[in-house]
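From the methods appendix. Each design record in this collection lists the tokenized structure first, followed by the designed amino acid sequence. Records were kept in a plain field format so they could be parsed without special tools. The example shown here is representative of the layout used throughout.

RECORD:
FOLD TOKENS (198 positions):
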């Protein structure tokens, strides 16, 4: 049993709270706290990760999942904590865009790498928002994008089972979600331009 205190709280979404692991600083624990949602994102994510492991895919652009653990706040799902070369927690891609940390060329390169990775490994980034993606600075001024949330599906059902069973259906969804992701990036950039004009 891992005792989780409020001081370990790292971030909070609409369904899950994310805590720093109190015993292992390179890991975080996702706890389901909002039971009003019919889907259990921890369960769905774990199921999808198990499928990826059986396919022996590369985890170069997604946070590793280590399975479930009992905590004082309920059953938690343990994940790799993504940090930069200096030990700082990697920033979200949204923050990187807002700060204009990357040049257009660097940004395009990272996005092309991620898209190629998802298509090659047949990995579905279902909840494709810029906050579910971290920009890891693994060396000074050298970056790569890593998905920390939103893999597989947003809810369980026939579509989720089809994604797991049929690669061609999964590939269609990957391409569709990538287009949505690029639109999300455009929205962030429009916000940047609007702020610059004010």
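DESIGN:
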């Amino acid at each position: 049993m891992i005792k989780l205190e409020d001081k370990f709280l790292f971030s909070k979404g609409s369904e899950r709270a994310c805590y720093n692991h109190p015993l292992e600083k390179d890991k975080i624990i996702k706890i389901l706290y909002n039971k009003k949602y019919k889907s259990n994102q921890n369960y769905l994510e774990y199921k999808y990760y198990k499928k990826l492991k059986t396919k022996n895919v590369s985890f170069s652009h997604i946070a590793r999942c280590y399975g479930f653990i009992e905590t004082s706040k309920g059953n938690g799902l343990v994940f790799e904590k993504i940090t930069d070369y200096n030990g700082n927690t990697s920033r979200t891609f949204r923050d990187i865009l807002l700060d204009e940390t990357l040049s257009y060329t660097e940004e395009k390169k990272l996005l092309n790498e991620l898209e190629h990775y998802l298509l090659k490994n047949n990995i579905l980034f279902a909840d494709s928002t810029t906050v579910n993606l971290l920009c890891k600075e693994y060396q000074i001024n050298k970056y790569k994008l890593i998905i920390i949330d939103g893999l597989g599906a947003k809810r369980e059902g026939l579509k989720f089972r089809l994604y797991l069973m049929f690669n061609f259906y999964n590939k269609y969804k990957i391409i569709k979600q990538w287009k949505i992701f690029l639109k999300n990036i455009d929205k962030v950039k429009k916000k940047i331009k609007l702020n610059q004009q004010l």
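APPENDIX NOTE: The domain at 6-197 is CATH 1.10.510.10 (Transferase(Phosphotransferase); domain 1).
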